[in-house]
Amino acid sequence: MPLRKQSPQTKMRIPRVTTVLWTVVGCAALLVTGFAISGCGQGGATSSTSMSKLTTAITDPAECSAAVGGSYQHAYVTIVDVQASTSSTASSTSSGWVDLTPGMKPTQVDLLGSAASGGCFLATLGDNLEVQAGTYQQIRLVLGSNTSTMVNGTNECNAMGGLSAVNCVETSSGAWKALTTPSAQQTGIKIPASQIAGGSLNVAAGKTEDLVINFKTCESILTAGNSGQYILEPVLNAGQVSTASTSINGTVVDSTTGKAIAGANVLVSLEQPDSNGVDRVVESTMAATDGTFVFCPVMPGSYDVVVNAYNPTTKVAYNVAVVTGVQPGDTTGNIQLTNATWGTAMVNGLASTQNASNAETSALLNFYPLEANPVTTSSTKYFTVPLLITSSTNDMATLPQETSTSPSYTDAAGVQTACPANTACATFSMTVPQSGISVYNYSTSGPTPAASTYSTAFASYTVDAQAWVPDSNPLAPDCTTPDMQTSTGLSITAGSTAAVTLTANTTTPPLNFTGCQ
Hints:
Blueprint: H1 27-33, E1 51-58, E2 72-85, E3 98-99, E4 107-110, E5 123-132, E6 134-135, E7 138-143, H2 156-161, E8 168-171, E9 176-180, H3 183-186, E10 189-192, E11 202-203, E12 208-215, H4 217-220, E13 221-224, E14 229-232, E15 236-241, E16 248-254, E17 265-273, E18 278-286, E19 292-295, E20 303-311, E21 316-317, E22 320-326, E23 331-337, E24 344-355, E25 364-372, E26 382-384, E27 401-402, E28 408-410, E29 416-418, E30 424-433, E31 437-441, E32 448-449, E33 460-468, E34 483-485, E35 490-491, E36 500-502, E37 512-516
Parallel strand pairs: 1-12, 9-14, 16-23, 18-26, 22-31, 24-36, 24-37
Antiparallel strand pairs: 1-5, 2-3, 2-4, 2-7, 2-8, 6-11, 7-10, 8-9, 12-15, 13-14, 16-19, 17-18, 17-20, 20-21, 20-22, 24-30, 25-26, 25-27, 25-33, 28-29, 31-32, 33-34, 33-35
């Protein structure tokens, strides 16, 4: 299978929030999450005392938009329906699915568009739907086929791009491309309980709840080899929010001037730890020219706000700052970044995949640079360091790459490493800050320094790689060990520009995935 990548400059991106599709629902909201709402799954009307209300909407913090230096000006998808089931194993043909948007005409949404009237949402799919209370275990988001001409209103892919498709993207250069949606997406993109905030969503009888489906657009749009075909490989999660006011906001400033960092690309990410103590990016956004940022809406939970900045003119990378323990409704206050004339470093390398018969096989791989948490009392072992937004790396989300037998890698010293025999490979190249991490605790009076934070230390990176089954719906972990990390101690030194080069045979442990499907 061909290697799927977006461009040589964007082989690796680190989220963001990426553009997100949120489905906001009352009782249905839970349904949309696909998790939690036992009771709604039967679909039939029951007594009003066991019913709840649901509203479904879409929102998007578009950090991969061309307006902020990203790869796309528009990303249109046509949504046909949203359904939910109380069964975690129900297939698209199983009975008992609840229609969360009955009567909805095919609706085309620009995932990189602007929220209406300064709010959180791009569009409304369903409003005040009455559904049965309960716990729903999965939902399905149904997309329209490009062979369909049914769109409620103007087909912007045709009107703006001259395409017959109803799903499409416009690149930053102005080229319009049809966005391929595999047939499985037309029967429903599955969101299981594992991708719902809190593990499930519960809707009480007689209540109105709000749910969001987070469609990570920047991580979901891939290209197939050299064919130029754009493919949608959806990365989704969901959770319950309030449509009224569940935001996290703050301001990023220069520690010396106390003002916004002029001329810099400032990336702000929300992260939460996984079961292994690795902080994973939930969503990201770019700070405005005045240094302010806002995430809206935000699902319940505690988040770490991770900030980095790069000035493409001076080529200075500021230190990475983390504010821990931030919750929806909180304002971080001023987050100070330090300019100590640090530059950037490159983390490059190769990873391989092999099946149980020791033969090459393809898998989708994501790569992430991690830095150890300097606060030893924290349960978080590593923070994900979002890639710097430079003139050559302008996307923030890690892009899954499908391994193939063709890749070879040439490091900064000119040494070429070929894909090991009987394996398939993918390469990665990540632009990261030289600086270490400064950690602060959230306080209503502003960020307060945590114990054991660094002063002028340089970074030490671990590379994390995750393997997924190609074309799975939703993406399913692959290989005997689906999440692998190199050793710590890949240190950045002053003035280095290509500090760390990793090959599939020399990393410790090596990024050689085995037992893959």
